[in-house]
Design brief:
single chain; 264 residues; alpha/beta; six-stranded mixed β-sheet; four-stranded mixed β-sheet; 10 helices; 10 strands; 16% strand; globular
Length: 264
C-alpha cells in the first residue's frame, strides 16, 4: 500500500477519505499522485471494511488536471505520448472508480479543470462549493477532452452543452453545474466538507450491497434495451432479496428501529 503524501488517506466509520495533496500545484497530477490514488481506490475494492469513498482536494483547488511542468516543449526532446499517459495512469483509475460497487462521493472544494473535472464527474455523487468552477480546459492547449469527459458530458448534459463547454473551455460555476444536472448540489463553501462527510457516512452505514447493485443497474441503463434492463432488475433484485441487509432492513422496519446494515 502506498504511503505517498500526494494523496492523504483517512478511514473513519467505513468511509475512506482521500485528499489530493499537491496544493502548491493546485493538486495537478504527476505520476506519483496517479499511482497513489489508484492504489487507494484498489484498496477500497478489496477491503470490505471500506464501504464508501469521499474524494476531495487540499487547499484552494480540487484538481487542475495534469501537471504540465514536466512537459514544457521549450525544453526540447520528442513530443510527449499523451495516449500512453491516459493508458497507464488516468484510464485504469477511472475504470476502478466506475466499477467500484460502493458509493464514491466527490467534494469539489475549488477549481476542477481538465482531467480534474472529469475525475470528479466519474464519481457517483458530486457536491461542490459555490465558489468552485468546472473547466474543460483542453481546448486552451490544443487537446481533446479526456479522462472520460467526452463520454460523460454528452450523457449528462446533452450534445449542445457538452460541445459548448468542450470547445470554449468556458468555466462553469458550481451553481450552474447543479442547475444543469452536471452535479448533485452546490453548497456554501464553509459547509462543503461537513455536508460531504455526513453524506458519505450515511451511505457507508447503509445497505451497501444493494447500493452497489443499484450503481450497476444505472450504469447499464445507458446501453440496455428496456427488456434487457427489466431482466437485469429481476436478476439483481433476486440477489438483493436474499441478502442479510434486506432481512435486516425489513426487520428494523417492522420493529420500528434503525437498521444495522453490514453490506452483505
Amino acid at each position: 500500500m502506498t504511503t505517498s503524501e500526494t494523496v492523504l488517506a483517512r478511514r473513519e466509520e467505513g468511509v475512506l477519505r482521500l485528499t489530493l495533496n499537491r496544493p502548491e500545484k493546485l493538486n495537478s497530477f504527476n505520476e506519483e499522485m496517479h499511482l497513489a490514488l489508484r492504489a487507494h481506490i484498489q484498496q477500497a475494492h478489496e477491503d470490505e471494511a471500506i464501504r464508501a469513498i469521499l474524494l476531495t482536494g487540499a487547499g484552494r483547488a480540487f484538481c487542475a488536471g495534469q501537471d504540465l511542468g514536466d512537459r514544457d516543449p521549450r525544453k526540447g526532446g520528442p513530443a510527449p505520448d499523451l495516449g500512453r499517459t491516459l493508458d497507464q495512469f488516468y484510464n485504469p483509475t477511472l475504470r476502478l472508480i466506475r466499477r467500484l460497487e460502493k458509493p464514491v462521493i466527490c467534494a469539489v472544494n475549488g477549481v476542477a479543470a481538465g482531467a480534474g473535472a472529469n475525475i470528479a464527474l466519474a464519481c457517483d455523487i458530486v457536491l461542490a462549493a459555490k465558489s468552485a468552477k468546472f473547466i474543460q480546459a483542453f481546448a486552451k492547449i490544443g487537446l481533446i477532452p479526456d479522462a472520460g469527459g467526452s463520454w460523460s458530458l454528452p450523457r449528462i448534459l446533452g450534445e449542445p452543452r457538452a460541445k459548448a463547454l468542450a470547445l470554449t473551455a468556458e468555466p462553469l460555476p458550481a451553481e450552474k453545474a447543479a442547475d444543469w444536472g452536471l452535479i448533485w448540489r452546490a453548497v456554501e463553501d464553509g459547509d462543503l466538507m461537513a455536508e460531504a462527510e455526513k453524506l458519505a457516512q450515511s451511505l457507508a452505514a447503509g445497505p451497501t450491497l444493494g447500493l452497489g447493485l443499484t450503481k450497476r443497474l444505472i450504469h447499464a441503463a445507458a446501453t440496455n434495451t428496456q427488456d434487457e434492463q427489466l431482466d437485469m432488475e429481476r436478476d439483481l433484485q433476486q440477489q438483493a432479496g436474499r441478502s442479510a441487509d434486506y432481512a435486516e432492513g425489513v426487520t428494523a422496519f417492522l420493529e420500528k428501529r434503525g437498521a444495522r446494515f453490514t453490506g452483505k
